[in-house]
Amino acid sequence: MSVQDAILDRVAALAPPPEVLLSREIWWRDHQPWFKECGYLLRPRYAPDWVPSWEGTNKYPMDCEDNVPALGGRVLDATRVSDGALVLLKKTLVSDHPHEIEIGTFFSSEPLASDPRNHCVPLYEALDVPDDPNMKVLVMPMLRALDNPPFETVGEAVEFFRQIFEGLQFIHENRVAHRDCMGPNIMMDPKPLFPDMFHPRDQRKNREWTGKAKFYSRTKRPTKYLFIDFGISKMYKAEELSVLEPPHRGGDRTVPEYQNSNEPRDPFPIDIYYLGNMIRRYFFQRFHDLEFMKPLVEDMIQDDPSKRPTIQKVVARFDTIWQSLGSRKLRSRLVACDEDLFTTFFRNTGHRFRTAYYILARYRAVPTPKS
């Protein structure tokens, strides 16, 4: 037995059996009746009288939906009783994140909510936890990682860039600095690609846990990308032309302004850095064929924040860049940096057939969703 196998066996031996709730799940179970009163059903695992569905049967726990524990203690999925929609519940402490609900409500209210440039996750409501006045539970749509499933074409990547630049422009124009808009805090609306959705705990499976979740490509079913997690965001008054904030480091710790410095900084150029560095990490380090974006991204991640373009300039430059690309380039396949020759040949062959179908069926090279 290898050392790695021995470690895995040891971890498995220490893990509680699937019929035992983890400590991070107890709070959700204890509040399940309250969530039901509010109109949200938690999965059967969190019912106070839960009996594992495999007990007394010949089923293995791994084949049952209710064997899967929550991934973390702050968030959990639920079903909205009124329409059966899958939603996300997120616990937040008002003392730690005093502006999150205010900003979420601001962007989720009219007329901003109906603005097609609004790429902020909708906040359906904020529930007051009855036994903790400092805690709220935010109700939002269930989203999916921005790159799952992977991007297939240059045009799909271009549409992602267009939307996140447009979205940050909308945020900044409304005098809000996100302050943590790195990769995991930009997600995808999965409903166009996954019309039947998926299981929130194992997103490879369908919602019923009976097989794989079926999905479409972004080209066939264009989707929308959304900024999430406004926990450390700040909103400023229109008359505040210049703002400075002390370091409040988000998930991306490479921001040049915060290296060996605690001086207050302008948060808006930091947002520009976050987006540029996210594109570098998520796209340049994974795919070829995006060289047309590199000059813009290099300007966005300059060490000197005064040399970074504003989001208005980013949007204007990007608009010129992508409109100069021909249809052949936009429909070309994104080639992964780690592909071998056999994989490249195999994927290119399949891509040619798909592209021919997309062209004949009049699917756009840049798949922009309908407003």
From TrEMBL:
Residues 1-346 form the Protein kinase domain. Coiled coil: none annotated. One of its GO terms (molecular function) is ATP binding. Transmembrane segments: none annotated. InterPro entries: Kinase-like_dom_sf (IPR011009), Prot_kinase_dom (IPR000719). This is Protein kinase domain-containing protein.
